[in-house]
């Protein structure tokens, strides 16, 4: 298992060690090092939580400016580079573009998209090529999909 351990793996470490498994056997079963198991056991014993979970976003202080910038765009898609540049130049923002992106996702969620499969099919007859009106090769049925949502 590469990278950080997810919540499920951390809970498995806790459960297996409570049942009496050794750190090395837990590490083998999860595919991580024994040191990683010991590290997570120490953090769990100390009651540590993820460090970023409780921290406010850096861009939180610029909420009014970001909301004004978004309102001026009239609901169009957000150009993150332009927003970050405007915040730096006009508002004195010192954070990164990534921090603005994280804040946008948290504070200004995207509107719900149209549900899939809610389009209307309208069949139309194309021009006749050979002359017979019922010949499938001459009557071109084109499936024109209009993506208007039906009420």
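^ structure tokens above, recovered residues below v
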């Amino acid at each position: 298992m590469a990278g950080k351990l997810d919540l499920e793996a951390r809970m498995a470490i806790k459960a297996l060690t409570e049942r009496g498994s050794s750190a090395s056997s837990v590490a083998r079963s999860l595919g991580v090092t024994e040191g990683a198991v010991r590290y997570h056991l120490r953090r769990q014993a100390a009651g540590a939580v993820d460090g970023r979970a409780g921290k406010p976003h850096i861009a939180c202080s610029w909420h009014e400016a970001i909301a004004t910038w978004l309102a001026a765009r009239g609901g169009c898609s957000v150009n993150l580079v332009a927003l970050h540049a405007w915040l730096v130049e006009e508002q004195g923002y010192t954070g990164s573009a990534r921090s603005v992106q994280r804040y946008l996702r948290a504070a200004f969620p995207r509107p719900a998209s149209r549900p899939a499969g809610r389009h209307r099919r309208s069949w139309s007859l194309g021009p006749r090529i050979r002359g017979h009106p019922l010949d499938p090769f001459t009557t071109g049925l084109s499936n024109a999909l209009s993506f208007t949502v039906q009420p």
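The CA atoms of residues 91 and 134 lie 68 Å apart.
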